[in-house]
Design brief:
Helix 6 (247-266) runs parallel beside helix 7. The protein folds into two domains: 12-89, Threonyl-tRNA Synthetase, Chain A, domain 2, CATH 3.30.980.40; 110-392, 3-Layer(aba) Sandwich (Rossmann fold). It is elongated and about 85 Å long. The protein has helices at residues 12-21, 55-60, 62-69, 142-153, 185-213, 247-266, 289-295, 307-315, 322-326, 355-364, 384-392; strands spanning 32-38, 42-48, 73-80, 83-89, 110-116, 121-125, 132-135, 159-164, 178-182, 231-236, 272-278, 298-301, 335-339, 345-349. The strands form two sheets. The chain has a ten-stranded mixed sheet. Strands 1-2-4-3 form a four-stranded antiparallel sheet. It is an alpha/beta fold and 393 residues long.
């Protein structure tokens, strides 16, 4: 600790006591070390910081600690005021991703989708981070991330809605589990108003409950028997909703963007959450793009083709993470930088999941897809192959 600059000068009382009782040299005071606990990927050491120290001092010395311990990486986490934990990782856990057995799930709207660089699972928690933006270039692993999201939510009591303007090539395989699907801008222009109407119905339900006892301001405060099912909306290639060729297309775009912004601003209290994916998402897409992006609390940036794309995802919440996103190599698909509005960020990597396995998993749980009357006309028709798999399961 002294060699890594993590000690403080002893207090005057300690100095006098040492000199009065012994002739030893008065040494600097290091943090008090707790038990060293082995893990599957390295060690964990809990430290009680010395007076005058803070967790930022440990974070600044992680590179020196890494060389001192001869490990691949050292990560610092604050347990409580004055207590920090060092997580020593002995090898690159993102090279061959293996999710831990305790995956961090176990709750509604919580999905472990990737592995952090400190060997802990990265959990997508919609109750904590309602809306998220995921960016990535072609073959960056963005579609793999989306598959894990859909497959992780499939067994839960959640309505899944897909908007895939690439003619449905990404989300159509999951049709048995989807409650609604739009595969082009025209269908999206009908689906989004229906979602806004559903949101307004839920607000009326909340307001009616408030007149009764004034107990809640969102659907999670309603009694379980009255609580509507949560809805997760997946938007793949969001730029397709902004592109225009004629003046009529501009009117259509403005309407679509208005509905998306309303869902992002008001949907959380109604139990409606957005998962927006694309290759680029900046002001050049047109009016409303920046406003929509500002409502998306979570950010995941895979490999991108230029620094400007990384800044679109991370520049406004974690500027220091932009360079980390720009250095993701093409030969490591699935590697990404995850951040949120708190400014915290970490590298994560999604394990491999084939489209066939994800589609089969959704077919197995097709019976869990709730029927929403207001979205019934958008319910996709599963292919015969998928239906037969579901029946056989």
């Amino acid at each position: 600790m002294d060699a890594c600059g993590l000690t403080v000068p002893p207090s005057r009382l300690r100095t006098l006591a040492v000199r009065a009782t012994t002739r030893r040299e008065v040494r600097p005071v290091p943090p008090r070390r707790g038990l060293v606990r082995p893990t599957a990927t390295g060690l964990r050491v809990r430290l009680r910081l010395a007076p005058g120290q803070e967790v930022a001092d440990l974070a600044a010395a992680t590179e020196r600690l890494r060389h001192a311990w001869s490990v691949h990486a050292v990560h610092v986490a604050e347990i409580k005021p004055g207590v920090a934990e060092l997580r020593l990782v002995g090898f690159d856990v993102l090279n061959d991703v293996r999710m831990p057995r305790t995956g961090g799930g176990g709750g509604l709207l919580r999905v472990p989708v990737a592995l952090r660089e400190d060997a802990t699972p990265f959990v997508r928690d919609y109750r904590t981070v309602p809306h998220q933006l995921t960016l990535g270039a072609t073959l960056s692993g963005k579609s793999m991330y989306l598959r894990h999201m859909v497959a992780g939510l499939a067994p839960q009591r959640v309505a899944l809605v897909g908007i895939d303007c690439k003619r449905g090539v990404e989300l159509a395989p999951f049709a048995p589990r989807l409650s609604a699907l739009a595969t082009d801008p025209a269908e999206t222009g009908e689906l989004l108003p229906a979602l806004v109407a559903l949101m307004e119905e839920r607000y009326d339900l909340i307001r009616a409950r408030q007149r009764h006892d004034g107990a809640t301001s969102d659907v999670w405060g309603l009694p379980e028997e009255e609580r509507p099912v949560p809805v997760v909306v997946f938007v793949d290639e969001v730029a397709e909703l902004f592109l225009t060729a004629t003046r009529k297309d501009e009117e259509r775009r403005d309407e679509l963007v208005t509905h998306l912004v309303r869902l992002a601003q008001l949907g959380r209290a109604a139990g409606i959450y957005l998962e927006v994916c694309g290759q680029r998402f900046g002001a050049e897409l047109g009016k409303g793009a920046t406003m929509l992006r500002a409502q998306l609390t979570g950010r995941v940036c895979h490999r991108v083709n230029d620094e400007a794309s990384a800044k679109m995802a991370l520049g406004d919440i974690a500027p220091e993470a932009v360079m980390a996103a720009c250095t993701i190599p093409a030969e490591r698909p699935g590697l990404a930088v995850a951040a949120d509005s708190s400014g915290r960020w970490t590298r994560v990597r999604t394990p491999y999941l084939s489209l066939t396995d994800a589609a089969t998993h959704c077919a197995i749980h097709a019976y869990r897809a709730p029927t929403l009357p207001s979205l019934a006309r958008f319910r996709p028709v599963a292919s015969t192959a998928v239906e037969s798999e579901s029946t056989g399961s």
